[in-house]
Design goal:
The chain is an alpha/beta fold. The chain contains 24 helices and 21 strands. 44% of the residues are buried.
Amino acid sequence: MSREPSPNLSREITGEGSEADARGGALGIESPVAAMAGIGPKRAAALEARGIATAGDLIFHLPARYQDWRERTPAEDLRAGNMIVIEGDLGKISERPMRGSRWRRLASGWLKVGGRQIRVVWFNLPAYMRGYLPGGERVLVRGRVAAGADGGIEIVQPELHPLSDGEPKAIRPVYRIPSIVGQRLFASLVARALGETGGSIRGAIPDQVRGEVPTVRDALSYIHDPPPDADLEALANGQSRGHLALAFDELFAFELALSIERIRSARRAGIALDGSRTLSARMTDELPFALTGSQSRAIEEIGADLARPNQMNRMLMGEVGSGKTIVAFWAMIRAVECGHQAAMMAPTELLAEQHYRGFARVCGRLGLKSALLTGSVTGVARSRILRGLSSGEIAAVFGTHALIQERVRMRGLALGVIDEQHRFGVFDRAKMKALGPKANLLMMTATPIPRSLAMSLFANLDVSFLDELPAGRTPIATEIYTEDDIARVHEELRAELDGGGRAYYVVPFIEGDEDEAKSVSATAARLKKDAIRGARVGTMHGKMGTAEKDRAMREFRDGAIDVLVCTTVVEVGIDVPEATIIVVVAAERYGLAQLHQLRGRVGRGEKASRCCLVASSDADEAALERLAVLRESTTGAAVAEADLRLRGPGDLLGARQTGSLPLRFVHLIRDHRTIERARKMADDWILRDPSLASRESEGARAAVKKMLALGFSLGDVG
């Protein structure tokens, strides 16, 4: 089927000039997309399903990528595999249903370039183009060149721009949107929304301190409609001046909110723990090892905080094996010896149980009554613990989310400790604090973060760092392999098992949709069949329920499993001294900090341990060099600094806060100095306008209000 080109092609594609224009009128940020020209009920529903319901949602939905229409490709430079932009005369286009699918349409025609005829073909013609292809016109064609069946070349799935409509945009944005909407229609909606709401788009940064940072309005205009001389690579990577301006404005608001919260938290009344230190002194004196210098400093800092009449809100940071738990036990003893209660919450039953047993082992001689409260504790045992907590008879309790259920009451909670705090939502942390409204809070994390970045990331908290490992820790040998060396890796694995060790085997996929060979199920089957026949192999991954994961980890800990094939869900903090080797497949997929944490799963016993990083066969030289950094870096601090240099802080900052706060763009930041600059700017502005009451602070006030509107204290962020 063929059809003469419509004279109003662009208007028909975008919906311009339709009767829907009657629904127009001035737009506001909150105007519904459904009221805009070209958007009927089906398109509106599809957009709303993607979170695009208002004009404001439109303009903050950034392009996923960009097309470069600036340079024309000479006909003699057409090569199979190249992406090209070429000018020519398009002949008549034929369309027909594809064989075996009445809904998919094949369209093809010929493009005349000079004296040469080049076939153009669409194997699945987009719905909005059907019947409207501009055959018989002078056009620009953008697409990928492929080898044709006749031995020539053809341009597959090209995009067309009739030159009768003028020159195309030099750089055209491409959005991740429902296909029912279409790129051109969406771009026209964005342009209208940006044009009509631009005056009401407020950024957080006051003009008085903005300097050379573009306004949010200018940043959005740059991103949605880049100038012809824009850096395409920077746009594609989210590193253009527009992208970075959005990220910086958001980061300024975030740091501003943290500064305000820090001031507020300094005024909050807390429980002062300034009584006798008899029990806490006994605890440290009776330890079978000496505290490290950083542990002693952290204890001094925490002790000073606890003695004040204001709530402590402190983060304890230290890599795996640095001794965070002993410091937390000291703080709990400090609360108890002053006549109060303490609670420690962990993300899994297994970890909560480990802490409970560790406390009994270290502090059992002090005569304190402690308990373990998890979802598995039911019936009479649960009732007895609840009574003990309510009466104050139980001084220290360890548990999971079960600690923050409705029926749990504590008579005198003075300290709440949250292990692996990033595994809990802000509301979980708020519920923990609600058990004792004036209780002090200590949060712990093993994520390696450079000190400079941590001071900005946790600007509302006091931070203690454990940057030393206890003496006697067995070094972990880190070795790098490629997939071609996997047989050697399995020999190493077998040798460790024969020597009485156990092994973690980390793969990137749960199932085989992306790469069957690197999935948990396929890997476990292959290991049992060939590489380590006779060994007991278990599996663990994120689709398992909590009880299933706990069972797998417990079986591995207790020796019922020799090799645990898993994804990176493998528990942080679980002690399995017999684990002496960890294999990480497709290691180039992970950041150095995450690899360092995985490496910390082994080396917890007296035997020497090893970490085998297996790079994919298609890993490039840069990826291998990055892994080599991990081989040479033995401490979390060194790894974190290397990760900061190689990847920048944006991914870490954005990922850690996404879901806790409405941060959408911070992950674009790559230079940690930008974060420090935003924090300094925020601190300076707070000194200038502490209550954000001035007219100049109007945008900042609105941005901070938006963050606080989520209904929790920023003191819970971390």
